[in-house]
Prior knowledge:
Layout: H1 9-18, H2 21-27, H3 35-39, E1 44-46, E2 52-53, E3 64-66, E4 72-74, E5 84-86, H4 96-107, H5 112-116
Antiparallel strand pairs: 1-2, 1-5, 3-4
Helix pairs in contact: 1-4, 2-4
Amino acid sequence: MKNYELKMDRYQEEGKEKYLDNYIFEAENHIMNNYDEVMKSSKATCMYCGYSFNPNEFSATIECIPDRDGNKTIHCPNCYCDAILGDKSGYPVTDIYFIARCTRLWFNGYSRLDYIGFSNERIKWVKIEVD
């Protein structure tokens, strides 16, 4: 039995009626091989950390990993997770209830959003050198 409340619990519960599981799992099909779709979007959101951005502002620095067929998957400029959805996908990428449902169903409560909630603070990466 869970004895703690995750940050997205309230939005996740309220979003269940609005966004059914099948709808959320269909959206998951748009996070892989999504380079073209995301780059045509005016807004994109990471479903892991909640970072929203305009992909065109990051076009020169957007990280993406090509697969063996040359298809590219965009990684979040904040947390580097491959859970980006762009608004050209047709999904409501800025709706808190949709984001909460995605993060819960895709990451089972183990996401930055669930533990920290929404934060405007960017993740600060540090370089660790080991001898």
